[in-house]
Amino acid sequence: MESTLGLEIIEVVEQAAIASARWMGKGEKNTADQVAVEAMRERMNRIHMRGRIVIGEGERDDAPMLYIGEEVGICTQPDAKAYCNPDELLEIDIAVDPCEGTNLVAYGQNGSMAVLAISEKGGLFAAPDFYMKKLAAPPQAKGHVDINKSATENLKILSECLDRAIDELVVVVMKRDRHNDLIKEIRDAGARVKLISDGDVGAALACAFSGTNTHALMGIGAAPEGVISAAAMRCLGGHFQGQLIYDPEIVKTGLIGESKEANVARLTDMGITDPDKVYDSHELASGETVLFAATGITSGELMSGVRFFHGGARTQSLVISSQSKTARFVDTIHMFEQPKTLQIR
To answer: Looking at residue 212, what is its pLDDT?
Structure first.
């Protein structure tokens, strides 16, 4: 899978990032998202594969979104039989977030990315559009911290695993009312809190890399992004756990579904019989081969954002593979026309 799709999935996230970055700072988050979706779809439909979106923008509607269940790739086109051999057909599941952090793009803030994860058919957990309690931590803490423990307990464990004092630890938490008690507990334990407004996929990723000054991600965010984070963390060997949150009273902000009972019924219809189950990265991204790719739209902890110059642009991407056990940072110059200069820095 990596040798077949590696370069092409880089180009998918690159094109989405470039399209979205043209709207950076213009206050148009929906447009920044829409153009990223369109660029991602257009590039995926030129890949020799039969892909299925298992995590996307929701069910099919009139909006130009990559909807759950949508088929993408050359081999899904009406005339596919002319050039697709069913015996050689690569069938994959795809989780996408064409513009992770739409508000970040709209207001010119750091940390937005175009991101996707792929695996063979059935290899990614088809998360409902609910919320998810998440815990991400560095590889040294894998299997030691636990989402069922309190933040205070996990900070003590992290301190031991990383050989750092608790007051040297930085925990990323999304700035939401539902996290007020969590933030207080982390601070009372002696650790520092980095609040973010959006974009917890990047925060989870940062936990896996030494030198980012990010040592944990805690709190509740979107479930689909949790699966994408889990795919990356599985490849990197980092710790990731997620637990679906289906009670509107817990999240306090726009959970799909009118009631806890209705949401439990929806999960049952999806085949999820234990709504309180805690999933690890290998359960959320269970495929034999998992690939993750992201391109910075605006600059973040790991990647620079898109930089335009006369006649072109420069992007920085991260591609992670469970197959080759690699994390590649890819620096690309895109030449839209005959450029007058090629921007190196």
So the answer is: 95
Superfamily of domain 2-124+288-335 in the CATH hierarchy: Fructose-1,6-Bisphosphatase, subunit A, domain 1 (3.30.540.10)
Within 8 A by CB and 6+ apart from 79, the residues are: none
Question: Which token pair is 23?
Answer: 């709207």
Nearest alpha carbon to residue 308 among 339, 263, 272: 339
Write the class of the CATH domain 131-284. Answer: alpha beta
Among left, alpha and beta (phi > 0; psi -120 to 50; other), residue 201 is alpha
Q: Which helix (H) or strand (E) holds 320?
A: strand 312-321
Model confidence, pTM: 0.92
> In angstroms, rounded to a whole number, what is the distance separating the alpha carbons of residues 318 and 99?
15
For residue 309, the model assigns a pLDDT of: 87
Average of pLDDT values for 74-82?
76
| Structure confidence by residue, pLDDT tens digits, 249-276 | 888 766 566 688 888 998 999 889 999 9
Angstrom distance (rounded) from CA 328 to CA 306: 18
Rounded Cα distance between 78 and 100, Å, is 31
